[in-house]
Amino acid sequence: MVTSFNRKTALRLVLIGTAAASLAACAHRPKPSFPTTSSAPPPVAERQTTPPPVAPVTQGALPGSVQDFVVNVGDRVYFDFDRYDVRADAQPILGAQADWLKRYPAVAVRIEGNCDERGTREYNLALGARRANAVREFLVGHGVDPGRITTISYGKEKPVDAGSGDVADQHNRNGHTAIVSGARGG
Amino acid sequence: MRLMTLVLTLALAALSFGVAAAPARAEIEVNVNRGDVQPLPIAIPAFGGGQVGADIAGVISANLNRSGLFRPLDPNSFVEKGLTTAVEPQFPAWKQINAQALLNGEVTNDNGRLKVSFRLWDVFAEKQLLGKEFTASPENWRRIAHQISDAVYQQLTGEKGYFDTRVVFVAETGGRGAKTKRLAIMDQDGANPSYLTDGSFIVMTPRFSSTSQEITYMALRPEGSAIYLFNLDTGRRESLGQFPGMVFAPRFSADGQKVAFSVERGGNSDVYVMDLRNHSSTRLTTDPAIDTSPSFSPDGTRIVFNSDRAGSPQLYVMNADGSNPHRISFGDGRYTTPVWSPTGEFIAFTKQTGGEFHIGVMKADGSEERLLTSSYLDEGPTWAPNGRVLMFARETSGGASKLWSVDVLGRMQQAVPYPGAASDPAWSPLLQ
Question: How many domains does chain A have?
Fold first, then answer.
């Protein structure tokens, strides 16, 4: 047990080292051109179940920053009850996420799968993992290097909407693309 | 004799589960009309020896009352005062208030330790059923009260009690969406809560070993999840090891030598089992569906688990090596969190149907399903070690999660007297 633990720890250290090296390599690449805010698709409201955008579009976000990603691209897509297939209204948002991530290759993200409270804890952990993976597969399928993406399921532990009821439940069934490193500025 | 007959009827009614299972016609009627099962009237005067004597009698009385099988009588109605363990009670005085059983006792100081003696009487037969003595350090007076409760329960029902036990759970503070979750432990009656983690990371689903003072639980951090083994006596914490994806839903086998759990990889969750003696793990399911919440049968030969391989979450039983998985839940709705009972006869679960959540039990083959509770969100039952009571978490719409208990017949449903918000309870075995 101890042996295998140590071996895995060592492996992990190597991986972290690799990631650091690739980050360093990125610093020497030419800077990407600035994206225009119009490249982000407008929010799609095909369904009643689509929650409204969280914040109004801000023109002042530094391109390549976390704020730019959250405001101009959208860091969250929503799912139907007990489903993990990427909805039609989520596809343009994830497509824009993929484009943005390809434009800023130093950025690493963590996809967080979230569920509403109308399920039990362990099943929701498994369901959230499916959602996170669905987002991950979409991004990878659209050309994002899988090495830049980690996934985690929060199950129903981290609701973005503290309310109860259908609207809160819709908000809380989501996949959140969180930038963990490599973004510009603040 | 009348007392014993009543108690036997109670015990049989509690044991039998549906018409087909009952062996005799008389008990069938009691079982079907569950409202007919009357809790046994018992008189528990304050034990002699001052405040601690009164406190011990109070804890015993509350324990027996919460079981739903006993009805402690109002001490104001007692006719005989100043009863001591040195003499026989005046039985007519207890018959007069219709006490079927009488429990009296005394606390004395034995070189700085508490010595508690008690006697249990059958009032109408006018005979002593039980007399015992416990000694402990003064700060452990509640444990003595729980041990006496267990002795009375066992004498009068013929089954082991469950009062000298603890519950490990997740204590919650903070509003919805910003909860701090700490691993916590308390006595089964909500007393003596203490906290085992500091809330700096999310903890979930603690479970007790049924053979030792050891628990297993899941920790969730943004970097990943972990399953820990934590020894309550030594304070030693050990990780189950590192896995390629998330790990969750740990639960000990009944012999304490294995942990079954889920490993997620690429979005797919499967059931694994680890032998704690050599930390070797084996994958038991390979279905692309969600497979989680494994729970061993008490004899270790089978595992019940949760899977949505048929399109919605349902309960499945497989052999402990993963062979022969077959579905056992067929009712309307979504079934999750199966837990095998300590007796092996039943499986408790959470069921979601009609917009409500229920705690239910079914026979291990899936037959005779019975829903015990109904609310906005009831979740995650855990069995008392005698298989008679289930504890679970209940959340109202927009409210905090609280711990509740219900007896296996669904007659006695009540909040656990822990003052804070809490979830994921797990019952310990009887303390040694």
Answer: 1
Is A117's CB within 8 Å of B377's CB?
A: yes
Contact A152 B352 (CB under 8 A): no
The C-alpha R_g of chain B, in whole angstroms, comes to 23
Yes or no: say if B114 and B136 are a contact pair by the CB < 8 Å rule.
Answer: yes
Residue pLDDT tens, chain B, 432 long: 344 434 434 443 443 333 333 332 222 122 222 445 789 999 999 999 999 999 999 999 999 999 989 999 999 999 999 899 999 999 999 999 999 999 999 999 999 999 999 999 999 999 999 999 999 999 999 999 999 999 999 999 999 999 999 999 999 999 887 899 999 999 999 999 999 999 999 999 999 998 888 999 999 999 999 999 999 999 999 999 999 899 999 999 999 999 999 999 999 999 999 999 999 999 999 999 999 999 999 999 999 999 999 999 999 999 999 999 999 999 899 999 999 999 999 999 999 999 999 999 999 999 999 999 999 999 999 999 999 999 999 999 888 999 999 999 898 999 999 999 999 999 999 998
On whether any CB of chain B is under 8 Å from the CB of A81, the answer is no
Distance between B344 CA and the closest CA of chain A, angstroms = 23
The dihedral built from the CA positions of residue B172, B175, B176 and B177, taken in this order, carries a sign that is negative
Chain B residues closer than 8 Å to A160 by CB: 177
State the best of A118, A123, A130, A153 to mutate against chain B, taking most chain B CBs within 10 Å. Answer: A123
Residue A149 lies in a domain: yes
Alpha helix positions (H), A28-164: 66-68, 91-103, 121-141
Interior/surface letters B271-291, b for 16+ CB within 10 angstroms, e for the rest = bbbbebeeeebeebbeeebbb
Phi-psi group of B11: left, alpha or beta (phi > 0 → left; psi -120 to 50 → alpha; rest → beta): alpha
Which strand (E) or helix (H) includes residue B114? Answer: strand B113-122
Cα separations in angstroms, B116 against B33, B143, B235, B346: 40, 11, 31, 37
Does the residue A94 lie in any domain?
yes
Alpha carbon B341 to chain centroid, angstroms: 10
Q: Helix or strand or coil: residue A43? A: coil
By C-alpha distance, the chain B residue nearest A111 is B222
State which residue of chain A sits closest to B392, comparing Cα positions. Answer: A120
For residue A8, is it within any domain? Answer: no
pTM of the complete model: 0.85
ipTM of this complex: 0.90
User: A125: which chain B residues are within 8 Å (Cβ-Cβ)?
Assistant: 204, 246, 248-249, 262, 264, 269, 292
Of all helices (H) and strands (E), which one includes residue B229? strand B224-231
Looking at the domain assignment, is residue A165 inside a domain? yes
Q: Which of B181, B223, B264 to mutate to test the interface with A (most CBs of A within 10 A)?
A: B264
Whole domain around residue A121: which residue ranges? 66-181
Q: How far apart are the first and last CA of chain B?
A: 33
Q: What is the CATH number of the domain that holds A112?
A: 3.30.1330.60
